[in-house]
# Entry
Amino acid sequence: MSTILAYTSPAIGHLFPMVPLLLELKARGHEVHVCALPDQIHALQDAGLDARPIDRRLPGIGLADYRAGNPRAALASSVATFTGRARFDAPDLRAAMDTVKPDLLVVDINSWGARIVAEASGLPWATFSPYTPPLTSRGTPPFGPGLDPMPGPLGRVRDALARRLVIGAVEKQMLPRINPLRAHLSGGALAPVKSADEMFRTAPLLLVTTAEPFEYPHPDWGRDVRMIGAMGWEPPSPPPPWLGDTAEPVVLVTTSSEYQADEAIVRAALEGLADEPFTVVATVPAAEGSAGYGSAPANARLEHFVPHGQVLEHAAVAVTHGGMGATQKALSKGVPVVVVPFGRDQHEVAARVVAADAGIRLSRKNLTPGTLRTAVRKALAKKEGARRVAAGFTAAEGAAAGADALEELVRFHP
# Structure
């Protein structure tokens, strides 16, 4: 049995999908430790994990890409956030390693400094990605703008041109920041990376929490990238007392757990669905209060946090911001979605929803109470696509497949 140390970035949307994997490893007899958000330590300990807080300065270095005026500026902002966190998450992981003495490391894809420390350690290690990583793949549009797949020669030409523009912009922002970090944090032991693909594939194993048919086929990714299906976890809690009295069907409305000024989704839902035959449950986990959302109509509840899994048992449609976790959690229960992407990886999530015929994409620019109401009505007809996606997630075997891959990594490590 192995001693395993997992390191997560300061985001619930990255921590919670990893928990089923850690619990599976513990159930197999491994000694499992996890570094996570300080306010989630008790919940993780209650679940049976040895949990310790990440550096308390890390949650204060939040994403500010929503303030950017254009995609290039948003990308630069995200790179600045991840490199800014690296000066804390790198020594933080080192300190945890000194205490735990791990045989295996599992590191969040967004913890750039911790990933460099893991790579330089000589230990077997894996990257954990709760979203589709921006890797090149034949027949797939470049990651970022949410382009729909286009087969045939014309599609290949479009993708090649778009890839040069999109990935070129990524590399111009990323490489000048990441390579000095690699040199500094490894004491010069690690060579510079020459591309975004190389940077995201530095680990000998990359676990990705998605699967076909939601994700596009990637036959050229190889066995070092494993798609293990959607994984969701919520701290055990009794259902909210009002849920049993809620008239069905429910429409669940989600916003990001990392603030991105997406209040417009909730405002549009509260107004647009006020006279519809639904109960609307809107969650705003990153909000500091209810200001900016307006008053909830008689058929709606506005909640800071409620376990989505419990609400989805009663849901007909989920309206999401395009976060991978919230969207896949709905689809894993066969609930079709309306996706209103605001940025980050959310345009790509929306494109995959459309490609899988599991819901409706509604652009932020076109978001109004009326357009959202129409989108929800159309999404009701996408249940079969959502069920197909749910079946694909189940077939990928989730935490069991991830644990198998990690055990194999340790077994064959030089």
User: Anything to note?
Assistant: The mean pLDDT is 91.
